User: Fold this.
Amino acid sequence: MITPQSEAELAEVIAATKEPLRIIGGGTRSVVPMGNATLLSASGLSGITLHEPGSLTLVAQAGTPLEQIDAALAAEGQRLPFEPMDHRGLLGTSGTPTIGGVVAANVSGPRRIQVGAARDFLLGVRFVDGAGRILKNGGRVMKNVTGYDLVKLMAGSRGRLGVLSEVAFKVLPLPEVSVTLVLKGLNDAAAVTAMSQALASPFEVTGAAHWPGQGTFLRIEGFAGSVTYRAAQLREMLGGEIEEGAQRWAEIRDVAPFHAGKGDIWRISVKPTDAPGIVARAGAEAVLYDWGGGLIWLRMAPGIDLRARIAPFQGHATLVRADASTLAKFPLEQPETESLATLSAGLRAKFDPRGIFATETDPLRAAAS
Assistant:
């Protein structure tokens, strides 16, 4: 494995390579067969470059551990607003989540329904493309750009277009109080209806999840007086009981119900109103709804082609965890439409003209971390 210690060294390595590269961050995602690709880790590019609490801005090198960033922000009463999940429990890995990995996969947790995704708080990026060129885009304040909006393009690119070396974020203050309204006994359809009503209300719900057998959970955060009022109003509208604290949301964020046990793990993004019907067709062993029903986590018996089973559907189904035989049969990501595949190929030809970045959609079946 190659671990450059600086952006300049990273550029030299990429420019000189003649073999495919598999880009990893902290190694928190599953390792699958990678053919003749060489592992290139961004973990050597580590450290917070700039933190200006007054301007709600943080800049860090891509290999900076996420826990280091969380600690620095918490010391100033701040946080990353989009609540990135920790994949280690779900995937059984032991690496260290990095901020570059978060950006590369656009990792966003339950709060996405209210504040947006990781890409929505990304102010700027620096990265090295497949030709070994150091590119940068954006800055320390939110602004429009001409040509390619590389900030948005790199978020979720999963190592297809380049290797991130530095990222800049807008951050937000930590909430003073967090409470959860818990509704018991709802079936899936009723839970999605309740979550939709809560999210459409004026009470600023920052999390809406349904865990069958456990309950339907609606989170409210902010200043104490405001949270007390809004939670009471939401309870009057929907019923339920108030639960203090935020620990349950870490479990939902990290899909804790699926950490133990065997089976394939799928992640489906759909319209919330379509979710109960899709789950009914899937025949899953277990299910967890997040994002008001727009995100479904499913645990399936091994080897089932879930996409074929629930077709036709509007959305994306991603295979997150499976054994080697299943990984050999099914693509990890939802196959692209012809027009989108053409666009993606054009972008990769522009930023990776030699085709050296191996990703999960390539024959090498290597996943970016």
